[in-house]
Amino acid sequence: MTDMNEKVEFSKDLLRGAAEIAAFLLGSRDQRRTIYYLATYSNLPVFKIGSTLCARKSVILKWVEQQEERRRGILRPHPA
In sequence order, which ranges of the chain are alpha helices (DSSP H)? Predict the structure, then answer.
């Protein structure tokens, strides 16, 4: 069974709604349309609770790190 500390940590990690995700990821709640676009056309790690778009801060941070790593791999020069 999940203990109470795990439940509290999950609730602190949870972002509810596109505006909250936009504020965390892009610095502005007004960018919520961008979040809907990314949720539809990219691999932005989101899920729904009912009709509300949600994400976990920890998962988004890991996703950003993966994007950075992937980009570094693309830009890495090929050995001659």
Answer: 4-13, 18-26, 32-41, 57-75
- HSE of 26 in the Cβ direction (CA atoms, 13 Å)? 16
Hey, where are the domains in the chain? 4-75
Distance from C-alpha of 72 to C-alpha of 57, rounded to nearest angstrom:
23
In the block, residue with structure tokens 């349309």: 33
pLDDT tens digits for range 36-58: 999 999 989 999 999 999 999 99
| Residue 50 DSSP label | T
Tokens of 4: 């109470």
Q: Which residues contact 17 (CB under 8 A, 6 or more apart)?
A: 32, 52, 53, 54
5, exposed or middle or buried, with CB in 10 Å at 0-12, 13-18, 19+? exposed
What pTM was computed for the model? 0.78
